Each structure stands twice: as C-alpha cells, then as structure tokens.
Prior knowledge:
Layout: H1 2-7, E1 10-16, H2 23-28, H3 33-39, H4 49-59, H5 63-79, E2 82-89, H6 99-111, E3 119-127, H7 132-148, E4 153-159, H8 169-177, E5 181-186, H9 192-201, E6 205-208, H10 220-229, E7 233-235, H11 237-242, H12 254-259, E8 264-266, H13 278-289, H14 293-306, H15 311-328
Parallel strand pairs: 1-2, 2-3, 3-4, 4-5, 5-6, 6-7, 7-8
Helix pairs in contact: 3-4, 5-6, 9-10, 14-15
Bound molecules: N6-methyladenosine-5'-monophosphate and zinc ion.
Amino acid sequence: MESFCRKLPKIELHAHLNGSLSSSTLKKLGCIEESIDKYQTINTDLKEVFSVFKIAHEATNNMENLYEATRSVIEEFAEDNVVYLELRTTPRSEETMSLDQYIDTVIKAIQENESSKIMVKLILSLDRSKAKEEQARTLDVIIKYKNQYPNLIKGVDLSGDPAKGKFFNDLFVKARENGLRTAIHCAELKNDDEVLEILKFNPDRLGHGTFLHPNYGGSAEIWKLYLAQNIPVECCMTSNVICLSATSYDKHHVQEWIKEQLPFSIATDDKGVFKTTLSNEFQLLYDNFKCSQLKLWEICNNSIEYSFASNEEKAFLKLALDQWKTKNIKPEIK
Ligand SMILES: CNc1ncnc2c1ncn2[C@@H]1O[C@H](COP(=O)(O)O)[C@@H](O)[C@H]1O
Ligand SMILES: [Zn+2]
C-alpha cells in the first residue's frame, strides 16, 4: 500500500510554509544540526510546538532564504506526487524584509516553480496570537495582494497558538466581502464558545476539528450546527498525535468523518516539524482504518471539490485523477 499512497495524485489543503521545511532545506538555509533536531520535534504538545517555528522564522528572515524555502517546499510536495497544493503562510516583516516583500517573495517562488506536475495556490494567514489591530493591518495587505493576484491568492487562514488570542468574526466577514475564501483552525483545543462562533461564521473549511464530534468532547449544540453547515475538515493525523490532541492514530477523530461520510481532506499541517509526508498521512488511513485504494482515491477526488481552485482547474484535476484511477485501481468486486 505504501507505493500506492506515494503514486496516488494527492491534494494538499493544509500546509504551513514555515512548518514544512525539510532538514535538507534547513541545512541549505544555514541552520545548525542542533536547531534542526529541535525543529523536527516528536516530543511536544500543542503548547510547546509553537516555539519551534521561531527556528524556521530565523532561517527564512530574508528574501533570498524565504524564496529558497518556498521553492524547496513546493518541489518536495511535487516529488511526493501532490498535484495540487494550497500553501499557507503568515506574512511577517523582518529587519531586511517588509510585509509586502515577504508576500512578493513567496509569490515569486510560486510563480517560478518549474515543476509542471503541481498546481500551487496561496492562502495567507492571520496569527491569532497577535493583537486585533495587527491582524486587521495584515488583512488589509492580504486583500490588496488578493486583488493583484486573484488566481493565486485564494484565501485567508486563522492559525497560531489556539490557547492565545481569538477569532475576530468581523475580520473574516471583511475577508469574505473582499472575495477571499476562509480556512479557519477550529476546535484544535476544546473551546466551545469560540467553536460555536466560528461555525456561525460558516467558513469554507475548518483546520483540525479535533474537538467537534460528540465522541471527542464536542457539545450537542456544536455537533448539530456543524452537521447543518457540513464544512469540510482538514484532518492532520500526525500533527494531532504528536501534539497530543489525539491520543493515538487508531483513535483519531477522522474515523467519525469516514464512518458518517462527512466532508474531510487529509493534510500534513507541518511536514517538516512532524517529519511526515502526505503519502504517509494516507498510509496511516490504511494502517488504522483499512481504507481501500478506492477510498483513498475518493478522498483525494473529494478534496478537489473542497479546494479553492477555479471550476476549470477543478475540472482539470478531476480529469487527471479519473485517468489515473482507470490505469491504477482495479474495480472493486462488490
Ligand atoms: C500544529 N498546529 C498548528 N496550529 C495552529 N497554527 C499552526 C500550527 N502549525 C503551524 N501553525 C502556524 O503556522 C506558522 C508557521 O508557518 P508560517 O510562518 O505561517 O509559514 C506558525 O507560526 C503558526 O502560526
Ligand atoms: Zn495548521
């Protein structure tokens, strides 16, 4: 099944740029072994993990390194047979790089990505741990760039330490009014009031959704509203298990979405920090829930629908996946 998962044309909808840096990329950016070991953490939790991103941020604190980091992350996803990638990153300013130059650099690397095997879109993130004024300023810059690059910048994400800051509904209403799709980290921690507020906003997608389902601590009111909204959840199994928000792979909440045929995609979150690949995340579905080859293919095919690609791009991707399926998956005998 391993080679099937690798060859499967996959759709990645939840990947943070500075969480996706491989050790070879970090070395190229001048990171020392000790920092790389710290970054690639496996003994962490949802509090600790946020300290490791500083290592990546130091490594990408100038345009040249940020360009190289973006380029190599895209290349690594393409090598893993990801055919469509929605890369997300939090614009930030550094000593030698303004917020605008940060975004310009990521865009340049995406536009100059040689690999024709992968289609890349950009989601720009608001860091929830920052003050509202800072998030509002960043959102204005994101809207400006979205208007300049409407086919590349597709959405806005809310991420950052879920124990800090908050979801500002009015910022995301403004984002939506300006044509941005919304993907919001939600229920990464148990936080019923905030989860209800986010569900009422009705984002296009939810990140993690760990404490949504009643079997995983979600209240009846939350679950009722979630079912009514039927919002696709970006499930990041390795991220949740390493951050201890899921007790084990075979107890991961994705099994409820599989059982109840609810909308979800499989994602890496931070393939560098958690030393995973999207192929590996699909292998975990087989190892823990015996998903068939056809089921794994269907998850990819459904994810095209949940993506922020244009209708033409979706049709192109669906055709590619259909052709792959005909050649690679024997029809299941019912
Ligand atoms: C593990 N679960 C998670 N939960 C919430 N936010 C996360 C995250 N993993 C990463 N990020 C967010 O992505 C940033 C790094 O990439 P960028 O600098 O944006 O490219 C982190 O600083 C954090 O804000
Ligand atoms: Zn995330």
